[in-house]
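Standup notes
- HV: blocked on the assembly model, inputs below
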Amino acid sequence: MNVDSISNGVVIDHIRAGLAFRLYNLLDLDNLDCPVAIIKNVASKKMGKKDIIKIDSQTPIDFDVVGFVDPNATINVIKDGVLVEKLSIDMPEKLTNVIKCKNPRCITTVEQEIEHVFILSEEDEKVYRCLYCETKADI
Amino acid sequence: MRSVIDIIDLTPEEIDDMIKTACDIIDNPLKYSEMCKGKKLATLFFEPSTRTRLSFEAAMYELGGNVIGFSEASSSSATKGESVADTAKVISCYADIIAMRHPKEGAPYVASKNATIPVINAGDGGHNHPTQTLADLLTIYREKGRFDNLTIGFCGDLKFGRTVHSLINAMARYTGIKFILISPEELKLPSYVKKNVLMANNIPYVQTTSLEEAMPELDVLYMTRVQGERFFNEEDYLRLRDSYILDLQKLSTAKEDLCIMHPLPRVNEISVAVDNDPRACYFKQVLNGKYMRMALILKLLQEA
């Protein structure tokens, strides 16, 4: 399968297979009017299978969101068809207004205009917990 | 502004100081009887809790202060849709310190971020209840005379029991502690508490389903109620409710100086016959709760 190269834009590579749609949704890429490609289950020597997202514009990417969904993903910035920057990312310590707490007893379910904040609580197991009720976040 | 939302907001040294204060209050109540004269405590109880609210109110009155507030959400502006943040800002104009209970987890934290006066979490859903833990700590101290080298058994609902999680957190900071966790499979201590508190601090613990087997080893036995309000499924609640009932027969193998605790209210998990046993400390816990709330109110008002 061929997907055209992009000349000016961003490629999010090495996404763990199966997480591209989650990342697409959390990055709100649906609202972009430029071409965006999600390529699933691409063969990878290192990972076996991986997902890739290609965005054909210089859209700012929220690194925290990428780091939350898959800290092993890489971000490649392409300008005039040339790779100008390859960035690896860390898991963010704090995630604000990216996901919402699923605990029906959490104050965030009723308090108006409250920030939805998650804190990295167990880095080795990639666990984020709600700042308010400490419920574990779904990735 | 200093607030207490979680027991870990207080250092072990601060807790030790508050225990000293509480013991001094017990010995010299008159010395403290006017220490909060002219100060107002606002008890904002968005869900009913007779015991905790009255304990806070009694604590403030015994310090010579006054109390304003409400005892259920229906008599507050929450029924008109007012946010917790706004309520905290408004009450800051009327009172000097807030004690808040709320069914939503994290509500007192939100209040503390918006109030200009100290906020004490008086229980937020199944999450935190730090002043219960302070009551528990004073009880252990007064009954056992120490916090180190104790084998503490927790029995019943260790999954949803917030008082259990808080007390484990608090006791994990002392040396020579061993925990015995007695519960049915469905109500075991959550793995993140085991990992983050017990394993992280190299604290020995045993998980068992048998109260009888654990009994002879215990210095402290902390019984809990299986709380119906924490279950979404009535069937599960009814099945687990009667898992463990402490009676005189089960106590026959216990140490003579065992300290039996319970955060109350009890349903049926401790037989009434146990109440007359000198090892029953759960009503002393209630009294200790008032003294520790007095010590906490004093501390926060002095720091404000």
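- HV (later): unblocked. The mean pLDDT of chain B is 93. Chain B is about 40% helix and 15% strand.
- Next: hand off to the docking folks.
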